[in-house]
Structure of Methyltransferase domain-containing protein:
Amino acid sequence: MGTYLFGDTAELLDPHFDALSSLLDAGTFARVEQLGIANGWRCLEVGGGGGSVANWLADVVAPSGHVTVTDIDVSRLEERDNVTVLEHDVVSGVLPGNAYDLVHARLVLFHLPAREAVLRKLRDALRPGGWLVLDEFDCLPLEVLSAAPDDAKLIMRVKNALLTLLDHTGAELAWGARIERALSDAGLHDVSGSREVQEWEGGSSGCRLLATTARLVRAKLPLSDDEFARYLELMASPETVVSSYAICSAQGRR
Ligand SMILES: C[S@@+](CC[C@H](N)C(=O)[O-])C[C@H]1O[C@@H](n2cnc3c(N)ncnc32)[C@H](O)[C@@H]1O
């Protein structure tokens, strides 16, 4: 339990992070803007992945603000004038206390069996009044809305196989559904959140994310090569429509 499922497939991660960024960055940026982020804020971006959020934060808080971006794999993260890149495991590593105006993590705690302890660690890294923002998925709503019956079955087989793999590595599949409660339970104030189920058409950034995720775990999926090729075709075809993972966000202040 607890090994990051997508960590050992380096060349497949670029398209995966691209899909995450196209799908989620606009919503993440809008939520953080609503908090009043401005020049001078000190930010911690946890599990920064491809770096799109850290780079945006760095632009918004410049010239006097600063971003520390962490990950267990920092190969895609860029040092800049006001960005410090830290190879850091948020489960075992220490973070400075009372240090940040904003701590943000997207689709990181989802994977971590120790998510509640990590949440408390992120809370303690905030200065009093600072904001913790989480963006997560609730994976359960994914269903097929439009595809031929055999294709629909294949899409659901891939969903179920992927969720089983995630579950076995300690991910909490519906974690997104309870992040507001988790922030309140951690003692944060002014907690609010949102949950959105979208329709993802084949070729959209959402279906690209499903395809890149399946590629990351291809060797572990119980599918023939023909079935896997068909799945990738379906994720690229505008005739396919699925209801999305619920995109869940929550914020609270220390
Ligand atoms: C699904 S990706 C999300 C990346 C990025 N936050 C985004 O939304 O585009 C999860 C990220 O968490 C990182 N990660 C996994 N376990 C971690 C840990 N224990 N400490 C820090 N980062 C971790 C992974 O390396 C990966 O970059």
User: Anything to note?
Assistant: The helical segments are 10-34, 52-61, 115-125, 149-168, 179-185, 205-216, 225-236. The longest helix spans residues 10-34.
